[in-house]
User: Which sequence fits this backbone?
């Protein structure tokens, strides 16, 4: 059985992992197959495939997304309707997300932002007591990555809360579910960490009205997708001082246009969609196990519910 591959960046680490995990399977790189071979390929491993990717792939039995978020894949005009789409669950990303979120959280909790500003003016001033019990941290999204962040933060003693679609009970975390609980959740987040998928239900979830529910001086860490947040409203709130700080990895338009005001905002750190990358080793091991399960007629891990959008 053969695989068709289109990867994020250089395919070499993916080819190496495929050789290690599935040495018996032949791998074709997209763009290097003839039409006859293409029509017989059962599995596609993709990351943001080009518009014409699915043309002629009439024999596909499963499509494996080489990342966690499937928003781009599910809106691909050529995506076959009845073929299962399977995403990566964690794949080495949960640990990276947790590190990144912790960096942003400590930046505000330990007042590195205040001290960096003081340094520009040569001001020597103690920023005051930093009691973790007084920095309330909320995580939007309690999936593979949101829960990974919670595990990392647990030993620090921050009051933790989390919000998801269906109710999740997480030890030591105040959990909320559903839109009707969102105002209560947001109003108790000094630092809000966003790890939701982008779906029809979550697009612009953090609208101007909802951003206004965050406490005065709250901070935002968006690691998920730019379109979850109203970027203009975010800028307005940063400019007015209602929001203290934003660590942003994702944007409405990527790459972020050179003249975008977020690039040079004094209370924003911009990173280029780099908070967590799928690691080829664990991801390909997951896909290999899924293909074996699929061929035995068993359930796969990470099958996307297309109606839900994640
Ligand atoms: P999961 O599918 O494991 O978890 C998603 C969570 O979001 C679940 O808790 C789910 O609720 C919740 N959710 C989904 N829709 C809603 C809704 N309408 N209302 C409330 N809660 C909702 O996803 P992951 O944790 O694996 O990944 C999250 C996202 O992170 C990805 O979709 C991707 O966009 C982003 N990402 C960004 C990366 C980057 O480099 N910046 C890297 C990797 C991922 P429930 O538990 O009820 O299902
Ligand atoms: C993902 C991403 O969704 O890298 O995996 O954005």
Assistant:
């Amino acid at each position: 059985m053969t695989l068709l591959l289109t990867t994020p960046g250089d395919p070499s680490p993916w080819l190496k992992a495929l050789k290690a995990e599935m040495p018996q399977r032949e791998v074709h790189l997209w763009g290097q197959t003839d039409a006859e071979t293409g029509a017989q390929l059962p599995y596609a491993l993709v990351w943001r495939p080009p518009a014409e990717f699915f043309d002629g792939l009439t024999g596909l039995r499963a499509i494996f997304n080489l990342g966690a978020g499937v928003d781009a894949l599910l809106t691909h005009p050529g995506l076959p309707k009845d073929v299962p789409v399977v995403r990566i669950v964690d794949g080495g990303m949960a640990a990276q997300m947790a590190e990144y979120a912790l960096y942003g959280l400590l930046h505000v909790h330990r007042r590195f932002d205040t001290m960096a500003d003081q340094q520009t003016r040569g001001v020597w001033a103690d920023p005051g007591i930093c009691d973790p019990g007084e920095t309330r941290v909320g995580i939007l999204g309690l999936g593979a990555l949101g829960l990974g962040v919670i595990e990392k933060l647990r030993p620090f003693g921050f009051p933790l809360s989390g919000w998801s679609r269906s109710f999740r009970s997480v030890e030591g975390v105040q959990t909320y579910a559903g839109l009707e609980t969102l105002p209560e959740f947001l109003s108790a987040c000094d630092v809000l960490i966003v790890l939701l998928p982008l779906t029809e239900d979550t697009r612009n979830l953090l609208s101007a009205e909802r951003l206004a529910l965050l406490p005065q001086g709250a901070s935002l860490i968006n690691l998920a997708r730019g379109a979850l947040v109203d970027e203009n409203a975010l800028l307005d709130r940063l400019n007015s001082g209602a929001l203290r700080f934003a660590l942003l990895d994702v944007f409405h338009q990527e790459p972020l246009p050179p003249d975008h005001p977020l690039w040079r905002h004094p209370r924003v750190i911009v990173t280029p969609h780099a908070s967590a990358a799928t690691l080829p080793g664990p991801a390909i091991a997951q896909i290999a196990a899924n293909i074996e399960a699929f061929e035995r007629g068993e359930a796969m891990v990470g099958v996307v519910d297309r109606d839900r959008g994640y």
